[in-house]
């Protein structure tokens, strides 16, 4: 498999640190607010990576953290007059609910920043010991990373130190580019948002949180560090710096997913054009949203407008329509069972191995639908059965197989199937009795309801028109 490594700025052959295993750390949400479309897309990207690695026999350990203590969380809590921990927990539950709706599987571990303060303080202590960090010069109790102590600083985003955007001047810094590892407690912040340390009460900086959690769960070196493109700087640049300075190999590959545009404009708080998950789910079923979110290559910009969900719905209905038709027409034949050991199409495997090219893999899926329908039209049942089995296997890998979704929808289909089959039986009886007016009336009523009948030599099938 090939991955685009952001640090190397090119496609690279993926070679895991440990043969047969894949270790992934993904920056999860900062839970100061409810989830939006960008959060869902990012989580889905790494769910798809995990599924594909597992389909290739790899044992995957996926860590997706929750940043539950941060400047943004405290600011939002103050603004809403809500305890910060309550705000964080409430939003964390919303994220978890949305992940489940989209069939995004749970990570191996989902650590909260607040549960790993000792690991962060240990890493800070090591950086001071190695000469890469220092206590604030103003005696405030903060601790900063000395960017000039690390010659490779800026290597992720290819920026010279003097041209780097300053994170905040700060009176206790040696130079403006230095960033906080530990933030001294402020009188304006609640006592519950501070922890004791050798430097005085305070809380961790954002960047040290992920470095500490990643190495705690995955070790000093692991395979992939992922996250949104907006995290490359300063967050990931600073993670890489402090982990390298600690002597850790850290991430072998850096992978970043693209951002979301709303009707051609970048989604941002300043433009007030954010699309939140509750709006997405009010416009379309979760499996349609999942299809839409994977419809652009993960490194590309994903554009949103309400009509794209209609397009995704139509595409998904075309896929499911073939599967339903194949199930009906292969019933009571020697091809009615799925071939569980069937090989994936070579084109699908090739596209998935080319930096997880899901849009191209979806094109392979739609070609399978087209050719499968042709095989059914021409009564080539063996070939139609093979296409159906391959299609199911491809859909299972990307999390869109019908049997992976909620039971409720399949129960609705079963009920509809029973009703329509009863009408078909009544129509067949009318035809045998030469009551053609009744038979035609049943057929016409089904057509008006959007049900199309197809008379084969030995049975009648139905489909949504």
CATH evolutionary superfamily of the largest domain: HUPs
Strands, total number:
15
From the N-terminal CA to the C-terminal CA, the straight-line distance is 40 Å
Q: Which strand-content bin applies to the residues? A: 5-15%
Instruction: Strand order, main sheet: write it out.
Output: 4-3-9-10
Which structural category fits the helices and strands?
alpha/beta
Mean pLDDT: 93
Number of domains: 3
- Low-pLDDT stretches: none
Structure description:
The protein is α/β, with parallel strands linked by helices and 465 residues long. The protein contains 14 helices and 15 strands. It has helices at 37-55, 71-80, 84-101, 117-129, 206-218, 232-245, 277-283, 286-293, 306-330, 346-353, 358-377, 381-397, 407-432, 436-448; strands spanning 2-5, 10-13, 21-26, 59-64, 133-135, 143-145, 179-184, 202-204, 221-228, 250-257, 260-262, 265-266, 302-304, 451-455, 460-464. The strands form five sheets. It has a four-stranded parallel beta sheet with strand order 4-3-9-10, with helices on both faces. Strands 5-6-7-8 form a four-stranded antiparallel beta sheet. A three-stranded mixed beta sheet has the order 12-11-13. A hairpin with a 4-residue loop joins β14 (451-455) and β15. α8 (286-293) packs across α9 (306-330), α9 runs parallel beside α11 (358-377) and α13 (407-432) packs antiparallel against α14. The model has no long low-confidence stretch (mean pLDDT 93).
């Amino acid at each position: 498999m090939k991955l685009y490594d952001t640090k190397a700025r090119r496609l690279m052959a993926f070679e895991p640190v440990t043969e047969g295993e894949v270790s992934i750390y993904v920056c999860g949400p900062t839970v100061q607010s409810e989830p939006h479309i960008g959060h869902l897309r990012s989580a889905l990207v790494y769910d798809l990576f995990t599924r594909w690695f597992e389909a290739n026999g790899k044992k995957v350990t996926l860590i997706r953290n929750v940043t539950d203590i941060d400047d943004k969380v405290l600011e939002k809590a103050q603004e809403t007059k809500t305890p910060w921990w309550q705000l964080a927990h409430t939003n964390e539950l919303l994220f978890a609910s949305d992940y489940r709706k989209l069939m995004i599987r749970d990570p191996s571990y989902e650590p909260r920043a607040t549960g790993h303060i000792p690991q962060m303080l240990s890493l800070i202590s090591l950086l001071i010991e190695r000469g890469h960090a220092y206590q604030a010069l103003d005696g405030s109790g903060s601790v900063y990373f000395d960017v000039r102590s690390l010659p490779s600083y800026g290597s992720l985003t290819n920026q010279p130190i003097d041209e780097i955007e300053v994170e905040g001047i700060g009176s206790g810094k040696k130079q403006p580019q230095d960033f906080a590892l530990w933030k001294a407690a402020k009188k304006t912040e609640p006592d519950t948002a501070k922890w004791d340390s050798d430097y005085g009460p305070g809380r961790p900086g954002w960047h040290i949180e992920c470095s500490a959690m990643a190495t705690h769960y995955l070790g000093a070196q692991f395979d992939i560090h992922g996250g949104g493109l907006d995290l490359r700087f300063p967050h990931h640049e600073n993670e890489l710096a402090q982990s390298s300075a600690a002597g850790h190999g850290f991430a072998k590959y850096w992978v970043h997913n693209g951002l979301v545009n709303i009707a051609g404009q970048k989604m941002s708080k300043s433009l007030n054009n954010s699309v939140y998950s509750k709006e997405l789910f009010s416009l379309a079923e979760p499996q349609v949203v999942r299809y839409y979110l994977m419809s652009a290559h993960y490194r590309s910009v994903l554009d949103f407008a309400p009509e794209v969900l209609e397009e995704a719905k139509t595409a998904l209905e075309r896929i499911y329509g073939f599967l339903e038709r194949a199930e009906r027409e292969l019933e009571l034949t020697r091809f009615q069972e799925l071939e569980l050991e069937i090989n994936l199409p070579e084109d699908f495997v090739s596209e998935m191995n080319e930096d997880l090219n899901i849009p191209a893999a979806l094109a392979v899926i739609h070609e399978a639908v087209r050719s499968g329908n042709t095989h059914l039209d021409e009564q080539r049942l063996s070939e139609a059965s093979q296409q159906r089995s391959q299609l199911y296997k491809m859909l299972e890998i990307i999390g869109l197989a019908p049997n992976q979704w909620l039971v409720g929808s399949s129960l609705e289909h079963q009920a509809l199937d029973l009703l329509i089959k009863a009408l078909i039986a009544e129509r067949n009886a009318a035809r045998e009795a030469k009551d053609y007016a009744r038979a035609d009336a049943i057929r016409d009523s089904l057509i008006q309801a959007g049900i199309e009948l197809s008379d084969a030599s030995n049975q009648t099938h139905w489909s949504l028109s």
